[in-house]
Amino acid sequence: MSGGGPPVVRAGGVLPVRRRHGKLEVALVHRPKYDDWSWPKGKLDRGEDFPSAAVRETWEETGLRVRLGMPLPPARYRLTSGPDKLVHYWTGEVSGGAGALDHEVDEVAWLSPKQASRRLSYPRDRDQLDALVALDDADRLATWSLLVVRHALAVPRSEWHDPDPRRPLTRPGRQRARGRVQALLSAYGPEVVLSSPSVRCTETVEPFAAAEGIPLTTKKGLSEEGFEAHPGALAKHVERVMAQGVGTALCTHGPLLPDLAGMLLARADASLESSDRRMLKRLAGRPMDKGEVLACTMLGAGRKARVVAVERHRPA
């Protein structure tokens, strides 16, 4: 809220993309109520994050499941009802779905970028399309996500008398894990889930892994005890993730996170926004919040893997 005015309406949207006979296509939706063509998008539910809303709304409107890729320019505009609307957009790789339409949408059209530009009803929607085309022209549209997760709120050490690795999440911590953490990970669709073997870490990412049927792999080098005994193990795990170059969620502890942020900063692409670079520098000096998800958009694999975008999703 600004200056006592009406609150900003927050929404998330996606530009679904696919290759058809080697040619790039994007999906637009037609809303009969407004007789307009635009990108799939919708308002955030209470307690929801922008990426989760973007994927949920795309599914509800188009019946397509998407995996978020590069963030695109946001849009902010005044609604006829008075308040401003702020929409955060991403590219979205279609990963499934039968394409069943929502009652608010009566048609989904897969079009070339030129066709889409002509059909879009609102000039502001071309900002996202232009950015997507620029990414494709630069061969920077095919990305993968590295999702760094700090475990959610755990039982305090002072209240726990068994070995520390067995210390579990509190009830609010479990709610965070089953709610916003799970939804955020689902939005980016990682194929690999790595975790410290400590209970507070596995409990944070297990709801997502179980729901998606992905094995949860634990690594001692991601634990506080393993890091203290063998600090170099963290770098080895990160290098393996980079070598694979596939979407990965990695859950660990506060003491490891500054080193991990430093490793990501060392892989910052020349194109990385200065604000994103400053974010990584800050995180290299202090750990993330408990229950936070740091979404790093990655380009390439192995030694060529580079961070091209960074988004912080912090607990409310």
TrEMBL record:
One of its GO terms (molecular function) is bis(5'-nucleosyl)-tetraphosphatase (asymmetrical) activity. Its EC number is 3.-.-.-. This is Putative hydrolase mutT1. It is an enzyme of class 3 (hydrolase). One of its GO terms (biological process) is AMP biosynthetic process. Pfam families: His_Phos_1, NUDIX. InterPro entries: His_Pase_superF_clade-1 (IPR013078), His_PPase_superfam (IPR029033), NUDIX_hydrolase-like_dom_sf (IPR015797), NUDIX_hydrolase_CS (IPR020084), NUDIX_hydrolase_dom (IPR000086), Nudix_hydrolase_domain (IPR051325). The keyword Protein transport does not apply. Residues 7-133 form the Nudix hydrolase domain. Keywords: Hydrolase. SMART domains: PGAM.
